[in-house]
Automatic annotation (TrEMBL):
Residues 17-88 form the Transcription regulator PadR N-terminal domain. InterPro entries: Metal_resp_DNA-bind_regulator, Tscrpt_reg_PadR_N, WH-like_DNA-bd_sf, WH_DNA-bd_sf. This is PadR family transcriptional regulator. It holds the Pfam family PadR.
């Protein structure tokens, strides 16, 4: 099931990209596949979402990039910078707070219903 198209999910691609790149450097298509695989195919962002995000994060200093040619194919590998780690922690904290708030509403006892 592909990711729903919703403004509610703004910031999710950035959070997931930064989290994946925290562990190791990757190139764009590899990131797309890693998100799909790690989410059990519940989340699937198109390359048209990921590549502009990677460029913006690099421009903002959250990522570093290096070009490498492997088997005649040039790829740009991305890694999280120190600024990116700080950004990841802030986004993760926001997501955890939101998750807790939504969980509290979902688990709340039923409210009185009008007669």
């Amino acid at each position: 099931m592909p990711a729903p198209s919703s403004p509610f999910l703004n910031g999710v691609p950035e959070l997931l990209v930064l989290r994946l790149l925290r562990d190791r450097e990757m190139y764009g298509y590899e990131i797309v596949q890693a998100i799909r695989d790690a989410s059990g195919e519940a989340i699937g962002f198109a390359e048209g979402v990921i590549y502009p995000l990677l460029h913006a994060l690099e421009r903002d200093g959250a990522l570093t990039a290096r070009r490498q040619t492997i088997n005649g194919r040039s790829r740009v590998y991305y890694a999280v910078s120190a600024d990116g780690l700080g950004r990841l922690e802030a986004l993760a904290a926001q997501w955890r707070n939101l998750n807790t708030a939504i969980g509290a509403i979902l688990e709340a006892p039923a409210h009185a219903r009008p007669a």
